[in-house]
From TrEMBL:
GO molecular function: acetyltransferase activity
Keywords annotated in UniProt: Transferase
Similarity section: Belongs to the arylamine N-acetyltransferase family.
InterPro entries cross-referenced by the UniProt entry: Arylamine_N-AcTrfase (IPR001447), Papain-like_cys_pep_sf (IPR038765)
UniProt keyword Transferase present: yes
Record-linked Gene3D superfamilies: Arylamine N-acetyltransferase, Cysteine proteinases
Pfam families: Acetyltransf_2
Protein name (Swiss-Prot/TrEMBL): Acetyltransferase
PANTHER family, per the entry: ARYLAMINE N-ACETYLTRANSFERASE 4-RELATED, N-HYDROXYARYLAMINE O-ACETYLTRANSFERASE
Length: 266
């Protein structure tokens, strides 16, 4: 990533260029990214290609969009590398209601700073706002909750949030191209949770705001309010007001089979 694009990326997330690639800078950049770049799957339902390369940076920086883990985490990794951080890609299997998901089902980053390694994830439904220190099972408190890693078994270890398992991390460094078959499945299979819902979600300092179809949900200090938007005009306005998106058209609403849970973003 060239210097000009890195500068534009920093402006997009409201962050200053750090003087050095240290933990304080990593924490600030991670939190700014989480609070400004939505976790969303609109392109899955707009018929757009999902990119596993620097093209997603243009989507985030110049189109004011977000994405899911295969997009926003590699993009953030490119920014971090441009700022002098050492970054590796990791994979995980997501804990779902029906059991543990497939390998390479989630992508996140391992960032090394001053001899220590941290898990950084800006592309999950309830990811930590700040880096999580790897190599410890101690509870790590974050504005999103209490995170902890489980014991390592055969190179894998679970990440828990408030005592509930989120995903099982594989500690081996991965290449981005290894995720292409998984992305194809998420992008095309009717059973994919990304194909069963249209969602856009963003944490806030007070909680979270989520738009799923015509339903806008706000969580403020643990209290939920749900608003059913009357028409497409209100949906367009909600995308712009709450997520900074200006869309040419709305994504197609999927037809989800009865009893299918979709993806949880709260």
């Amino acid at each position: 990533m060239d210097n000009g694009l890195a500068t534009a990326y920093l402006a997009r997330i409201g962050a200053s260029r750090p003087a050095k690639a240290d933990l304080a800078a990593l924490a600030e950049l991670t939190e700014r990214h989480v609070l400004t770049v939505p976790f969303e799957n609109l392109d899955y339902h707009l018929g757009q290609e999902i990119h596993l390369d620097e093209r997603v940076v243009d989507k985030i920086v110049h189109q004011g969009r977000g994405g899911a883990c295969y997009e926003v985490n590699p993009a953030f990794g490119l920014l971090l590398e441009a700022l002098g951080f050492q970054v590796e890609i990791l994979s995980a299997r997501v804990h779902r209601p029906g059991g543990l998901g497939a390998p390479l089902g989630h992508l996140m980053l391992r960032v090394s700073v001053d001899g220590s390694a941290y898990l950084v994830d800006v592309g999950f439904r309830r990811n930590a706002r700040r880096p999580l220190l790897l190599g410890t099972e101690a509870v790590q408190y974050d504005p999103q909750g209490a995170f902890a890693f489980g014991p390592e078994r055969e190179g894998e270890f679970d990440l828990f949030l408030d005592g509930e398992p989120m995903y099982r991390v594989d500690g081996r460094a991965r290449e981005l191209g290894e995720f292409r078959p998984s992305l194809w499945w998420f992008r095309t299979c009717p059973d994919s949770p990304f194909m069963q819902d249209v969602f856009c979600s963003l944490p806030t300092v007070e909680g979270r705001i989520t738009l799923k179809g015509h339903t806008l949900t706000k969580r403020v200090h643990g209290e939920f309010t749900v608003e059913h938007l009357a028409d497409d005009t209100e949906v367009f306005e909600a995308y712009h007001k709450h997520f900074g998106m200006t869309l040419d058209r709305l994504p197609d609403e999927p037809v989800r089979p009865a009893g299918t849970p979709g993806i949880a973003v709260e």
